[in-house]
Write a structure and sequence with these properties.
- The protein is mostly helical.
- The protein has two domains: about 260 residues, ABC transporter involved in vitamin B12 uptake, BtuC; about 35 residues.
- It contains eleven helices and two strands.
- A two-stranded antiparallel ribbon has the order 1-2.
- The radius of gyration is 21 Å and the shape is globular.
Length: about 300
């Protein structure tokens, strides 16, 4: 019963983190860049949204501004990588470290700022989980539709080609550097958008909210793609799968908490989940398939004899 009572909350939070995972999907799967900026940009979105709402800005407008703030963080990482020649993973780390100070400044030097759901008209709140699920779901549908339309434009297709084969794209006259900056900006904008929704849902923005966000995003991606790729391997189905992966992750997360696992171990749990979903495809390809082929060869040899 405790698990069933907690399930709506797990679904609501899973949807928000699933939206965040869509941002990670763009950088990791489409651009083929492991971008660690997201640990900072999700917090930036939360901080910007919270401060603006407290200043009297409407929640919907605060979310849009938070998205634009995330776009800027992605642009910084992209420019560090493309204009200054810093490796992408290191560029993300540098931006992430810088964002800790920036986020602290946005919060006015405080480690946390709270929003009273009763005093402000929020888009979603933990106090009304059915409405939070509906709102997060509608935002995700809107984001997926926009991304679907964008990635079938000329710019979107060249962005995909940049991740698939940058050398070939460059040879075809594609501005690979611009596409990397654009992709990272779009990725972190979506991550910050998720952060803005998360801040409203929780009723606060914490300077440490983003720690381990990349791991959760990757967990959602690998959980979702392990199923969606077997159903129909296309762009929209993959994005839906990623969101469902976020829901599955937080359902497991909630179940483990109810079982009594210490919160100190939850980060390790995230790492274990990602490790399992990364390792299983490799083991199936390099171990179990070889075992089957060897067995088939032995069976075939016996029949021939």
């Amino acid at each position: 019963m405790a698990f069933l009572n907690a399930l709506p909350g797990a679904i609501a939070e899973g949807l928000i983190w699933g939206l965040m995972a869509i941002g990670v999907y763009i950088s990791y799967k489409i651009l083929d860049i492991a971008d660690l900026t997201v640990d900072g940009s999700i917090c930036t979105g939360a901080c910007v949204c919270t401060v603006l709402i407290l200043a009297g800005v409407p929640a919907w407008l605060s979310v849009i501004i938070a998205f634009l703030a995330g776009v800027l963080t992605g642009m910084v990482t992209g420019l560090l990588h493309t204009a200054l020649g810093i490796p992408s993973i290191l560029a993300g780390i540098l931006t992430q470290l810088t964002l800790y100070t920036v986020n602290l400044a946005i919060l006015g030097g405080q480690s946390m700022r709270s929003i009273d759901p009763g005093a402000y008209d929020l888009m979603l709140s933990i106090r009304n989980q059915p409405m939070a699920i509906l709102t997060a779901g509608l935002v995700i549908v809107g984001v997926i539709v926009v991304l679907w339309l964008f990635f079938y434009t000329e710019v979107g297709l060249t962005l995909k080609s940049t991740g698939d084969n940058p050398d070939m794209s460059r040879a075809q006259g594609v501005n690979v550097k611009f596409n990397k900056v654009l992709g990272l900006a779009l990725s972190n904008g979506i991550v910050a958008l998720a952060g803005a929704l998360l801040a409203q849902y929780k009723g606060s923005a914490n300077i440490n909210d983003g720690r381990g966000a990349i791991v959760i995003g990757l967990a959602a991606i690998f959980i979702g793609l392990s199923v969606s790729m077997k159903i129909k391997p296309n762009f929209v189905v993959s994005l839906i799968g990623v969101v469902c992966g976020g829901i599955v992750y937080f359902t497991i997360y909630t179940f483990v908490i109810i079982l009594g696992l210490k919160t100190d171990y939850l980060k390790m749990l995230s790492a274990v989940i990602v490790t399992i979903f990364l390792a299983v495809p490799y083991l199936k390809t390099h171990y179990f398939s070889k075992k089957k082929s060897v067995k088939a060869q032995k069976t075939g040899g016996k029949k021939n004899a």
